[in-house]
Amino acid sequence: MRMLKVYAEPRTWGALGYCLFGFPLAVAGFVFVVVSLAVSAGLSVTLIGLPLLGLAVAMARGWASAYRGMGRAFLSIDVAAPAPRRRRPGLLGYLGERNGWRAILFMLLRFPLGIIDFVFAVALLAYTWGSLTYPIWWHLLHQSFHGRERHGLQFGDGRFADTPDRIALVVGAGVALALLWPWVLRGLVSLDRLLIRGLLGPSEADLRIQSLEETRSIAVDESVAALRRIERDLHDGAQARLVGLAMSLGLVKDELESADSEVAIARVRELVDAAHREAKGTIVDLRDLARGIHPPALDNGLPDALATLAARSTLPTALQVDLPQRPTPAIESIVYFCTAELLTNAVKHSGAHRASVDVRWVEDTLYVRVHDDGGGGASPKLGSGLAGLADRIATVDGTMDVVSPAGGPTNVTISIPVA
User: Fold this and answer.
1) 3-state class of 345 per DSSP?
2) Which residue, 172, 272, 328, 348, shows the most beta carbons closer than 10 Å to its own?
3) Closest Cα partner for 347 from 311, 313, 384, 310?
4) How high is the pLDDT of residue 403?
């Protein structure tokens, strides 16, 4: 049944269309590359040779767009166009355009593949339908040559398929080809799929650059947000308290200048007590602000800091830490804040009875696994704080995997390269 269902799948007819209609484009692309390179090489001794080569590389990117469009239309391959790179102005700047050269290489490789695809597609269809309809057209030929010596198909001095058994054999071969040719064509275009993805899509370097640009943007946004938060906390907290302290000390100074009675001395004592309380409150605010920038618990290392988190959590939390050496301060800070956020989420939203934190250093990767036995349903796609954690982890090329089915439990695994 599966052999017949293949005829109802768009992938089968897409492969056939790609083999048939991709051949003219393969020929045109190959001719373009050969002529462009030949003319550019021939004129390389003049001033226009290199600019012509640069123009060919630039035009190759347009050809690549056409091939990507054909891949989307027939093979359902949605390959994004490579991101444009900075280059020198003018046609000579395209000589260093890697994506253009990759497109040229694709057109050179696509030409022989296009021939193979086209020949196999035409041959398989011709032999399939020819074999299936052989009794009909053999009968017509037999009637046309009735009374002559030759009957049926003949190769050299031998005679073939001129008896009922042999005719049935030809039809059986046609049935076998009808069942096989969709799979053969789909196997052939798999090479084209690899070429399109490998040469016409973003390269590893492009993806790496894009990832770095995104993480850099996230890091810049986080740093700006952190600076604004610090500025707001200083302005609304510590600064306001210091202003109140200065005013209290000013009143004390005024009272001291006229302190000629026990009532005035009592008033001064009250003002001093108020200033003392304000100073202690300001110290607390500054300490909390500094803790938000760098937790003091990290001064003794990540294991002690996580132990402090687990001890302070209102949810019973088991902790296991296996670190052969100390990570960098940036990684320690990220692991600390992410673990604190995950434990806070478990307390607030999961309804869990217990949690566990497991931190291990395996080869060149630091793994942090936070588990709780709550109701589950956590997902970064819901716009929760998990999305912000994923962005923070991405700044150091880390990843976060959330497994939280409905009904629980929830397992969040953070992987951070430490090499």
Assistant:
1) helix
2) 272
3) 313
4) 87
